[in-house]
Every structure is written in structure tokens, then in C-alpha cells.
Amino acid sequence: MGSREQMLKDIGIVDFTLIELTLYLDTHPYDRSAIEYFNHYSRIKNQMTKEFSQKFFPLTIDMAESNKEWRWGMAPLPWEGACN
Amino acid sequence: MWSYVNRLQFPVSIKEPNANLAQVIISQFGGPDGELAASMRYLSQRYSMPYREVAGLLTDIGVSVAKLRIWNETCKISIKHLW
After folding, report:
1. What is the ipTM of this complex?
2. CB contact, 8 Å: A11 with chain B?
3. Which of A69, A80, B30, B54 keeps 20 to 30 A from B20, CA to CA?
4. How much is the pTM?
5. CA B74 to CA A45: how far, in whole Å?
6. How large is the average pLDDT for residues B21-45?
7. Helix crossing, B52-79 with B35-45: angle to 10°?
């Protein structure tokens, strides 16, 4: 499913949509079509985040299930160039 | 309240270090009208917000600004290579 960079970029795109939808829904809590839109992209983002975390490194602490080494602590950090 | 997400909202790639630009970014990050102060204002004003939906909005904006901060910080640190 693409390179690390491509996957991070895609997650960023979906996440941006979700952030904006969240702000809209905060003041329009009964907009059914916006809610549907949110549910749709939220599901996609969860799926993408999970896939990325299994393939490369955990993006959130609840995806940091580890075996031999503590994956969360070993993950590269954005300011070390990991997210470009 | 907080949980860290180990990625950037938008990829940052510094091709040419620029000390002047870094200075501007740092003041936008922590300066008197910087993101850091703004996010703290959003997050404390929500406690006394009489309109419930706006209180929710203040939470989400405060958090978004906090995410921006992470972006800024990364920018700043990347420019550090210059020094």
C-alpha cells in the first residue's frame, strides 16, 4: 500500500478533512449529511492509521503493541526527518 | 487530555536553512501573539463559555492550534541545522 511517505501524506489528507468536519459539526450537530461524511472518513482514517502502524511504526500509543522491542519508544520522530 | 500522535499534519522539508525566517517562526510559535498563547486562551476560555456548542468548538480549535504548534516546533528545529 505505497511507501511510508505516501501513506503519511494520505493520512494527513484524510485527517485534514476530519479536522475541518469536526469544527463544522461542533456548531451544526444535526447536519445528517455532514455526519455521514464524518463517519465515512473517520473509518478510512482509522484503517489507514492501523495499516501504517503495523507496517512501519506506531502513530499513536494505542497502536504500539510490541513483541521483542518497545516499538513506541523506538519509533523515529518527526523532527528527525521521519515525516517528510 | 493529551495524546501524542507521532506524525506531522503536513510534511516539513527544509531545503534551505534561513535564520531570518526561523526568527519569525519562533515568534509566531511562542511570541506574545503566538500559537502557544492562543491555544492556551482557547482552552481556558471554554470553561466559562455559556454556549455549549461554542465550548465544544473552543476545545477543538485549542487542540488544532496545539497541533500547529507541533508543526512550528518541527520547522524551528529543522532550521536549527544552520546554527
Report:
1. 0.82
2. yes
3. A80
4. 0.84
5. 23
6. 86
7. 160
> Quick one: cell of B67?
497541533
CA distance A79 to chain B (A): 5
Report which of A39, A17, A31, A29 is spatially closest to residue B51, judged by C-alpha positions.
A29
Cell of A25: 459539526
- Among chain A residues, CA nearest to B61: A23
DSSP string, B3-69: ---SS-SS----SS--HHHHHHHHHHHHSTTSHHHHHHHHHHHGGG-SSHHHHHHHHHHHHHHHHHH
Q: Is B40 on the interface with A (CB under 8 A)?
A: no
Amino acid at B74: T
Question: Tens digits of per-residue pLDDT, A9-33?
Answer: 999 999 999 999 999 999 999 999 9
